[in-house]
From TrEMBL:
Protein name: CIA30 family protein
InterPro entries cross-referenced by the UniProt entry: Galactose-bd-like_sf (IPR008979), NADH-UbQ_OxRdtase-assoc_prot30 (IPR013857), NDUFAF1 (IPR039131)
Family from the record: Belongs to the CIA30 family.
Record domain NADH:ubiquinone oxidoreductase intermediate-associated protein: where: 8-158
Xref: Pfam families: CIA30
């Protein structure tokens, strides 16, 4: 793995201070998520999502230094989930309100998941937008989000995020 392909490696960086949790409380919801280092040296994004009070999501984001990614065609994530569906989101421009979204299902085991740039669709507040999919040219932010329209506990262990 080259330095220009690495987005974040919890094993190497051993902290979560650059990650920001955003829960549905920004809209009045009551979901609770957090990120912390676990004993294995990975980031653990975990909590509880509730649809109560018009809620239903929890997320954690990392601001990437503006980066040209045009010589890559996918994001790869090394994660251990809980069998639930999560979203990985990319912002190509932090001044835009929308993100590009790709969903992935976890298996309960550690796995490397490849998310091709061409599969990321534009979304704002859970609504798919009628604009082209992600063009794979620039990244300024990445985010993990859970929003399965039901009340549930969640836990996603994150080892590494890189470009491929």
């Amino acid at each position: 793995m080259t330095n220009d392909s690495l987005i974040f490696d919890f094993q190497a960086q051993q902290n979560t201070t650059q990650w920001l949790v955003i829960n549905d409380g920004v809209m009045g919801g009551l979901s609770k998520g957090s990120i912390a280092m676990n004993e294995a040296g990975n980031g653990l994004f975990s909590g509880f999502v509730t649809t109560e009070n018009n809620g239903g999501f929890s997320s954690v984001k990392y601001a990437v230094s503006k980066r040209d990614v045009s010589h890559f065609d996918a994001v790869k994530i090394r994660v251990k989930g809980d069998g639930k569906i999560y979203q990985f989101r990319i912002k190509s421009d932090q001044t835009k309100e929308y993100s590009y979204v790709s969903e992935f299902k976890t298996s309960g085991d550690f796995e490397t998941i490849t998310l091709p740039f061409a599969d990321f669709y534009a979304s704002f507040r859970g609504n798919k937008l009628g604009i082209p999919n992600y063009n794979g040219k620039r990244i300024e932010e990445v985010r993990f989000l859970i929003a399965n329209k039901k009340d549930e506990d969640f836990a996603l262990e994150i080892e590494r995020i890189w470009l491929g």
